[in-house]
Amino acid sequence: MRNLLLTLRYSGTAYHGWQIQPNGDTVQSRLAEAFRRIGGADENIIGCSRTDAGVHANMFCCNVRTECTVPTEKIPDALNTYLPPDISVYDCREVPYEFHARYDCKGKEYVYIIYNGKYRDPFYENRAMFYPYELDAELLNSAAKDYMGIHDFSAFCSSGTEVQDKTREIFDCSVERKGDIIKFTVSGNGFLYNMVRIIVGTLLEIQQGKIEKDKIPFIIESKKRENAGATAPACGLYLNKVIY
To answer: Which one is catalytic: 25, 52, 104, 214?
Structure first.
């Protein structure tokens, strides 16, 4: 019995998120099927997090305890043979048996992409949020710094979340422009349900003048979801890095 740490990337457009759902296609279900095809039946694949429907991953980690006899270095090619083109395993290594992809994770980095051109670009369809209005990256970058630190982020998670402890540490939060692309980058020790998308949505409402640029500390302190901005669309969100 080995414990394998897999690293993969995927486009989430066609899937109902990572975790297996009773009535929807998911990345985890596709990976489990690929494992069965290479001789690892009924594997328990443990993901580093749950991504929502339509969310992408440049780096997603999961571990699986398996009796599969395929050599470790050949597992990515073996799995990719049976995975669809929008999911790719690009690394596999053996880790201690007690290693857990979720509980041993020390932090994550997310990126949110906005295409800020005047007209839609088909090549960014389902890969970025289309926003044809003015965006001041310097203004938003300055406001984003107020998210940094250890805070109770109750105001920045969906109201239906069942997590009791909503305190998280944000290591860094920044906004930059490269041509028509606006990139929001946020890293932290953990994130609540829809937290990054609400962080981005709040910054967009600062740009729109609906929220004053110095109000983020007040919103955090209020712990009230209604004081934060709207939830940005899933299509622009990428899990970019997992830290162990």
So the answer is: 52
CA distance 147 to 154: 13
The rounded distance, in Å, linking the Cα atoms of 193 and 121 is 29
C-alpha R_g of the chain = 19
What's the sign of the alpha-carbon dihedral 122, 123, 126, 132? Answer: negative
Nearest to 89 by CA among 175, 28, 141, 131: 28
Angle at 10 between CA 8 and CA 15, to 5 degrees: 130
pLDDT of residue 115: 98
Q: Is the pTM of this model over 0.85?
A: yes
Tokens 């305890």 locate to 65
Average pLDDT over residues 74-83: 97
| Closest C-alpha to 8, from 68, 62, 77, 81 | 62
Q: Quick check: is 42 catalytic?
A: no
